[in-house]
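Hi everyone, sorry if this is the wrong subforum. Our group has a chain we'd like a structural model of before ordering constructs, and none of us has done structure prediction before. Sequence below.
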Amino acid sequence: MKLSYCFIVILIFLGLSASAQQTHEEGTLTIGGYGEVALSRNFYSDNVYRYSSASSHKGEQHGRFDIPHSVVYLGYDFGKGWTMQTEIEFEHTGTGVSVEKEFEEAGEWESEIEKGGEVELEQFWIQKSFFPALNVRMGHIIVPVGGLNNAHEPLNFFTVYRPEGEDTILPSTWHDTGISLWGKTSHWRYEVMAIAGLDAYMFSTENFIKNGAGSPFEFKVANQLGFAARIDNYSINGLRLSLSGFYGRAFNNTYPYEVIPETSRYYGVKGRTAIGAFDFVYTGKNFIARGNADIGYVGDAVMISYMKRNRSASNAPYDKSSVGKAAVATGCEAGYDILSLSSRKETQKRLYLFGRYEYYNSYLPDTGQESAEWTAKHRMAVGLNYYPIPQIAIKAEYSHRFLKSDYNPEPAINIGICYMAFFKK
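Answer:
Right subforum, don't worry. Here is the predicted structure as tokens:
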């Protein structure tokens, strides 16, 4: 723990002691954002027992219309190297609460949740830039572990929804409060950060560590710290190669903090969590290819799973399912602009024919843990992305999720439209 806080002190010292300053135009306001609309017909059941009782739900189907994300960026350059940025995200059109008078309950006033969704402050940071190779950022920051978290806007992937593998096992978009040191040169970009640690009580069978970055409280518990890093290489024209990772302890990183006595069976449990990821993007004149490979590890998975089920209160805001010792996600996609085959004069319009394949498994159990074979999934998707202008894409795809033979296949048709733009800068 002492080393963790020493790391933060070093970052602050580097930021405050650098003498060179990057020049900016003072008083520049930046406004932007992105958003997605998604319409789906899923030719499989949405029943919660579709895996435990697959034969009972064979042939079922359902539809879903959604606004997965709608985001507003606000940024400001104060001059002298000082900048700030905020990002407010509405997921699934946000939340809705109404107040009504219940005449059946002695005329009491009650508030009721009318719809689901989330409203989040996904980014809020203040940055001091000294020169391109040295920038210090503090606040609520995107954690760029994995290809999706690094480039999560909808024009950065072909599918209607975010790529499933990383979106299943990792927080997405992963954002947390802490301090970041980053910089770039002509062929390299690096970033290292110290953030609040993950909460092992929120790990799960279906989503591995995905929900561990959130907090059900008004604050983010930071009994433990986490460390993330990313490095990108641009040496080859049109190609970005990237490595990223995360490490931190996740056990007992919740509220209230509990001192584990030496006589307890949980004494010495750390919940060491590590993520390693590789991703790439190649952009040619008429061709785009992207790919990722991620692996995650959770130490003490057996003890964490046992404690989640048996020690937390029945109404505590924690996940009670088991977490495996590991999870994996791999995927690749490629698209070709078929309009480039014609003798067109219009240069802005694009029509990409694409294909995507991915494999992911959110639960690789430790010795003695129960199995959950439904978590291993292969997914294929083929479709089109039409860009009438560079900032807007209309998407259509057919996807098919393959599980082991004990479970039903999961095909779907998805249609969407999205945008990503800066309105003023």
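For your construct planning: Confidence is low (pLDDT under 50) at residues 1-5, 7-24. The two ends are 42 Å apart (CA to CA).
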